[in-house]
Amino acid sequence: MGPHPAVAAIRLAVRRVLHDVLTEHCERVSRSVGHAAPAHSSSTTSPLHAAPSGEQPLVLVACSGGADSMALASALAFEARKLSVRAGGITVDHGLQDGSDLRAAEVAARLTAMQLDPVEAIAVRVGREGGPEAAARDARYAALDDAAERHGAAAVLLGHTRDDQAETVLLGLARGSGIRSLSGMAAVSGAAGRYRRPFLQLDRQTARKACMVQSLPVWDDPHNADPAYTRSRLRHEGLPALEKALGKGVVEALARTAQLSRDDADALDTWAADVDSSVRDDAGRLECAKLYALPPAVRRRVLRRAAIEAGAPAGSLFARHVEEVDRLITSWRGQGAINLPGRVEARRQGGRLVIRQG
After folding, report:
1. Which of 199, 243, 299, 349 could cross-link with 294 by S-S, CB 3.0 to 4.6 Å?
2. What global pTM score does this model have?
3. Which residues pair with 156 in a beta bridge?
4. Distance (Å, whole) CA 49 – CA 36
5. How many Cα neighbours within 13 Å face the side chain of 111?
């Protein structure tokens, strides 16, 4: 008799990601020794068992102790033993609740009991910039990036589910930040594709069921039910209200919207990158007339890229900023410079758009 359907589903999702990581690792190794990877190499082939232990890639799981990440950790521990993969775990102590250090130590002990190695509990200091949720997220990713660098990890697995994706799409819609915001979380993101999200096609209930049938203890973070947090209100009030008004299937539809939006946004980003050099003069300055001729969606992407290259932090550069810069092209009335995050300013001078730090 095989595993419970929920357990089988999470293991299959993790197995697919590990195959991708292994394929990429073997291609890198082949390039480093001067041999091209076989033309038929594919992530859909049978597991790759041939890598010497010294060359086995390390995959870390980010685990809070909640149902999603505990299910992910258990699936990684199970699948890694069948493949040429080393598996480790990281838990981050945000220090936002009494006893958080003890809980982090307990999660680390559970990961060690799964025979993950290395395992770390990392304490971070959460700032205030961008609000409590954003500040905690920034601190968490900084800790995960540092751990991945120190251990030489090929990938870090994150336990975001289809429900998390639906919430992210709705938050993006509420901000009015455009199609990229509606595309939600990518299955692969971060520097060199470091972060992998195997569960984006699985619902939260599947992960919780997998923990229950495996008798995995889970910790429910009280912040996830605290109405002081926007995502918590959306999870416990907003989405249920939408499902009551529109019927079941809202979460699945929002997740599909994320994928469709991501495909469109990727295509527009590629278009903007391709035309960037054609709208500049010989000195590399943006020409307003050529920018004006572009479709608005492409032009705004060119402007956003230019602002980021000039030093504007991507996470602080919002749609309203880009729209103001766009008006220097489409509604020129002699207006002055536009101030952007990162002490960057955009100014129209002699038919050129100059974007630089002040």
Report:
1. 299
2. 0.83
3. 60, 195
4. 19
5. 30
Helix 250-275 with 162-175: angle, nearest 10 deg: 60
Ordered strands of the 352-357 beta sheet? 286-287, 352-357, 344-349, 338-340
Beta bridge partners of 195: 156, 189
| Token pair 């003890």 in the structure block, residue | 102
> What 3-state class would DSSP assign to 60?
strand
Q: Tell me the pLDDT of the chain (358 aa) as tens digits.
A: 789 999 999 999 999 999 999 999 988 888 877 754 444 444 443 444 444 445 799 999 999 999 999 999 999 999 999 998 999 999 999 887 888 899 999 999 999 999 999 999 999 988 877 677 778 888 999 999 999 999 999 999 999 999 999 999 998 888 776 788 889 999 999 989 999 999 999 999 999 999 999 999 998 877 777 787 888 899 999 999 999 999 889 999 999 999 999 999 999 999 999 999 999 999 999 999 999 999 999 999 999 999 999 999 887 888 889 999 999 999 999 989 999 999 999 999 999 999 999 7
Give Cα separations from 358 to 214, 310, 322, 327, 339 (angstroms). 58, 10, 17, 20, 9
Tokens representing residue 111 in the block: 């990961």
> Residue 226 — left, alpha, or beta (φ > 0 → left; ψ -120 to 50 → alpha)?
beta
CA distances from 237 to 86, 184, 231, 285 (A): 41, 20, 10, 49
Sheet containing strand 195-196, strands side by side: 119-123, 86-93, 58-62, 155-157, 195-196, 188-189
Say how far apart CA 268 and CA 265 lie, in whole Å: 5
What number of residues does the chain have? 358
